[in-house]
Design a protein that fits this description.
This protein has nine helices and eleven strands. The protein is elongated, with a radius of gyration of 31 Å. A hairpin with a 2-residue loop joins strand 3 and strand 4 (170-178). With 361 residues, the chain is an alpha+beta fold. Helix 1 (3-36) packs parallel to helix 3, helix 3 (60-80) runs antiparallel to helix 4 (87-131) and helix 5 runs antiparallel to helix 6. 46% of the residues lie in helices and 19% in strands. It has helices at residues 3-36, 49-54, 60-80, 87-131, 182-199, 205-220, 303-306, 318-323, 331-346, and strands spanning 138-139, 142-149, 160-167, 170-178, 231-239, 244-250, 256-259, 262-265, 288-291, 297-301, 354-360. The longest helix is centred in the N-terminal third of the chain and has 45 residues, at 87-131.
């Protein structure tokens, strides 16, 4: 377990123990006051608040234990004020017992639901790791960094994707954004990533993209909403020896080249998204080549970053914010800067999935 999580668990345990003092103090106060009060004053019904209060922060076992303490206290009060078998005291004991049973059953149902949610979240995290595997920190002469933020923080997964594969003296990278949200988008993203990982280490870049196109069309055949399945994407090849990069653009936001203090948009023909190229008559997608030398950094992102809006409706100016970045510590430093600045721009919560990949030679 990570140190931060371990410390958080200990803190919650201490808080629960302190919270347990409240129902115990309530039981003690009712017991002392009622025993000292005249027989005509009945404070025993207030003991029902103790198990109800405990249920707010504890599980069924602790709540049941507090319920037993409450019943014992009511028994002492009843014995002092006329005995356990008077009608009034019997009614109070039966009412407290019923309330305690209901509260404990509620706690048990809540804990079962909480365990189910925990398992679901654990499965979502596993799915996230299987779908969006962390990029290697290094790949040949490259240093890589990534950021993935799902709009649905509970689900942890979305339709944005990225991946990297080594092969044939080069690094192949893919970043994309599948149409739609939810499980359909996650499934389509998994199909595209699987197709990329299976071919990127062995085939030429244009052949890899053609295979991704066929995969996107196959995914479209499985949709039931009457809409096309498509994905914007960038497919890249960066050779280990040559100071260049090769890029196939499939309707995705253009990459940014960071060289020193300058930020340049690598403008190229955008093309159609994957799955829609048949609309252009099966035209071959061009492979664009750009200089990419030592010290250069390439920034790839999805539209969840570029279309993030602030309170006034202004889009996030990624290129301008990168130009203001003063550190020179590589991809991780730039990603941390953009992540913090992006969340501040939108007020803390994104409304769309967002992915960012930074590559430094």
């Amino acid at each position: 377990m990570a140190p931060g999580r371990d410390e958080g668990g200990r803190r919650r345990t201490r808080m629960s123990r302190l919270a347990l003092l409240m129902p115990l103090a309530l039981i003690a106060a009712v017991l002392v006051v009622d025993v000292q009060a005249p027989a005509t004053i009945h404070l025993g019904p207030f003991l029902a608040a103790a198990p109800a209060l405990t249920a707010a922060f504890a599980g069924p076992w602790v709540t049941g234990a507090i319920s037993l303490v409450s019943l014992a206290a009511l028994g002492v009060i009843s014995q002092v004020h006329g005995g356990l078998f008077t009608p009034n005291h019997q009614a109070q004991i039966i009412a407290l017992l019923l309330i305690s049973v209901l509260v404990v059953l509620f706690c048990a149902a809540r804990e079962r639901r909480r365990r189910e949610l925990h398992r679901a979240r654990s499965l979502a995290e596993i799915a996230q790791q299987a779908l969006i595997r962390p990029l290697p920190r290094t790949a040949g002469p490259l240093r890589l960094g990534q950021l993935y933020v799902a709009a649905d923080a509970e689900a942890q997964v979305g339709g944005d994707l990225y991946g990297a594969v080594r092969g044939r003296g080069a690094t192949r990278l893919l970043i994309g954004d599948v149409r739609g949200k939810g499980l359909t988008a996650v499934n389509d993203a998994a199909l595209l990533l699987g197709a990329f990982r299976a071919t990127a280490g062995r085939w030429d870049l244009d052949a890899v993209v053609a295979h991704l196109e066929a995969t996107a069309r196959h995914a479209a055949g499985g949709t039931d909403d009457g809409l096309e399945t498509f994905a914007t994407a960038l497919a890249l090849e960066i050779d280990d020896e040559s100071p260049t990069l090769h890029l196939v653009q499939c309707g995705h936001p253009q990459p940014l080249l960071v060289r020193g203090r300058s930020v340049t948009v690598l403008e190229c023909e955008p093309g159609l998204p994957l799955g829609l190229n048949g609309l252009a008559g099966e035209e071959a997608r061009p492979v664009h080549t750009f200089p990419f030398g030592e010290g250069d950094m390439l920034v790839l992102c999805t539209d969840g970053i570029l279309e993030a809006r602030d309170a006034h409706g202004s889009f996030y100016p990624l290129a301008d914010r990168i130009a203001r970045w003063q550190a020179d510590d590589g991809p991780d430093s730039l990603i941390a800067h953009v992540h913090t600045d992006l969340l501040a721009h939108v007020g803390g919560q994104l409304t769309d999935d967002a992915a960012l990949v930074v590559i430094a030679r």
